[in-house]
Structure formats: structure tokens, C-alpha cells
Amino acid sequence: MPVNSHQKQGPGIQNRVQHRRDEQGRFPKGHSGNPAGRPPGSRNAATEMAQALLDGEADALIRKCVELALDGNPTALKLCLERLVPRRGRSAKLEMPRIATAADIAPAMSAVAQATAEGTITPYDGAELSRILETYAKAIEIGEFERRLKELEQDREDGRAARA
């Protein structure tokens, strides 16, 4: 039988660990071998190795990327442009109607389209707001469906109780 690290450390540790593992040496479902979890701030060994390899080479890598971009490499060009002009969220004042029901989504979408057309918000921001409104509309529809289903179930139960 091969010697494992617990056997090398003595019987006290082996007994303490043995009762927490099954016959194959695995921890039972729901019982972690490390209940405290990974320490905050700890990093993956592969990440640390990659960073160690790149330490001191950042200037040369950036210079090469810029050279490739200037030579017309589209991937390098995109990378450089994304660093020069990053896409960041910005706040913009936009008058939006209050949304309480699915019927309120259309005027809100109209406000987003109008603001985009006028240049108050960027097309990117307009698309993001439209996605938010679409998600909100789905949530309203699901809530409304759930409410109506409960009403139907309650009416059915009331009908059964009245007949009994």
C-alpha cells in the first residue's frame, strides 16, 4: 500500500482525516476538505507564473503591439484603440416615464429612441437601455402571469368549495 502524506505525519492526523473521507479517500458530498475556503487574495499558480514571465517585458510587448498596429494588423490595431479610447459608461440625463405596467414600456422605449436620435445618449447607450427595458418588460409580464394564474387557481378552489 502506498504511503500518503497523512501516514507520514503520524497516526493522530491520519485518524482525524480518515473519518472525514470515504473508502476511496474522497470527502463525502457536502463536506469540504477546506471549510475555510481559498484565502482571499490568493492567486492561481498559472497566473503567477505568467506574470513572472511577463515581468520586465511589458514595455517591449506594448512597443511590438503598437508596431503591429501601425503595420496594419487589425487585431493589434483594435487592441491599441480599445486602450486609447476605452468604452466607459457615462451618465446622461434622460427623462423617462414611470414604468408600472407592460403598457408603460412603449413610451419608455420611445423616450430612449428619441434621446438616441437627438444625440442626448449614444447609440450604444440607447441599445443598452433598450435591453434593460426589454428585460423589465419580461419581468412585468411574468409577474402579471403569476398574478393571473393565482387568481384562476383561487377561483377554481372557491368553485370547488361552493359545490361541496
Structure description:
There is one protein chain. The protein has 164 residues and is mainly α. Among the domains are: 45-84, no CATH class; 102-163. The chain has seven helices and no strands. Helix 4 (58-70) crosses helix 5 (74-84) and helix 6 runs antiparallel to helix 7.
Which value, in Å, is the CA radius of gyration? Answer: 30 Å
Q: List the total number of helices.
A: 7
Structural class by sheet pairing and helices: mainly alpha
The amount of beta strand, in percent, is under 5%
Report the mean per-residue pLDDT as an integer: 81
Number of strands: 0
Order of helices and strands: HHHHHHH
End-to-end span in angstroms? 72 Å
The low-pLDDT segments are: 1-10, 12-18
Largest sheet, strands/sense/barrel: none
Structure described in brief:
With 164 residues, the protein is mostly helical. The chain is 62% helix and 0% strand.
Please specify the SSE layout and strand pairing.
Layout: H1 5-8, H2 11-18, H3 45-54, H4 58-70, H5 74-84, H6 105-118, H7 123-163
Helix pairs in contact: 4-5, 6-7
Keywords:
164 residues; mainly alpha; 0% strand; flat; disordered N terminus
